[in-house]
Automatic annotation (TrEMBL):
Keywords in alphabetical order: Metal-binding, Zinc, Zinc-finger
PANTHER family: PHD AND RING FINGER DOMAIN-CONTAINING PROTEIN 1 (PTHR12618)
The protein, known as: PHD-type domain-containing protein
All copies of domain RING-type, residue ranges: 9-50
Family matches, as SMART domains: PHD, RING
Taxon lineage: Eukaryota, Metazoa, Chordata, Craniata, Vertebrata
Organism for this UniProt entry: Lates calcarifer
PHD-type domain ranges (all copies): 87-137
C-alpha cells in the first residue's frame, strides 16, 4: 500500500470525496476538515501519531493547495486567558493586588478594593455588588424620551 496516497479520514474513516480536508503542520496525516476541527477543540496532537500541531491546513482535497491556515488554541493558551480575565484592577488605586479584597461590579465589571471605597467596607457584600458609579447612574430601561 502506497503510504503517500491518503484516501480516507483517520477519525471517521470515510472516503475523501467532496469534503474539504485538513492536514496538520507537523505530519502528513489528512482528515476531514470537520473531523480535525472538532478534534482540535480537545487536543492539539495528531490523532494518529500524537505529534503536536499548531495549525490546520485547509485543503480542497488531499495534496491540494492550502486554502487557509487555521490556528489551533492550545490548552496552555487557555490558562493564560484565564489569568488575564482574572486581573481586575481597582478603579481607585489602580492596583490588582489583594484580590480577596477586590469587589467586581456586576454591571460594568469595574474593580474596587473594599477599603478604597467611600465609605469603605470591612466585609464583602453577600451576593452581587454594584459599584458607586453604577449605583448613582440610573440604568435606562429602554424608555427613550
Ligand atoms: Zn472524517
Ligand atoms: Zn500525524
Ligand atoms: Zn484599591
Ligand atoms: Zn459598575
Amino acid at each position: 500500500m502506497d503510504k503517500s496516497t491518503v484516501d480516507k479520514c483517520y477519525i471517521c474513516l470515510s472516503q475523501f470525496e467532496q469534503q474539504t480536508v485538513g492536514s496538520l503542520d507537523n505530519c502528513q496525516h489528512v482528515f476531514c476538515l470537520e473531523c480535525i476541527l472538532q478534534w482540535s477543540q480537545t487536543a492539539n496532537t495528531c490523532p494518529v501519531d500524537r505529534i503536536t500541531f499548531a495549525c490546520i491546513h485547509q485543503r480542497r482535497c488531499p495534496g491540494g493547495d492550502i486554502q487557509k491556515k487555521i490556528e489551533v488554541r492550545t490548552p496552555k493558551k487557555a490558562d493564560d486567558e484565564e489569568e488575564a480575565r482574572d486581573a481586575v484592577i481597582c478603579e481607585e488605586c489602580g492596583r490588582s493586588d489583594r484580590r480577596h479584597r477586590l469587589l467586581v461590579c456586576i454591571h460594568c465589571d469595574s474593580g474596587y478594593h473594599m477599603d478604597c471605597l467611600t465609605p469603605s467596607l470591612n466585609t464583602g457584600p453577600e451576593g452581587d455588588w454594584i459599584c458607586p458609579e453604577c449605583a448613582v447612574t440610573p440604568h435606562h430601561t429602554g424608555k427613550n424620551v
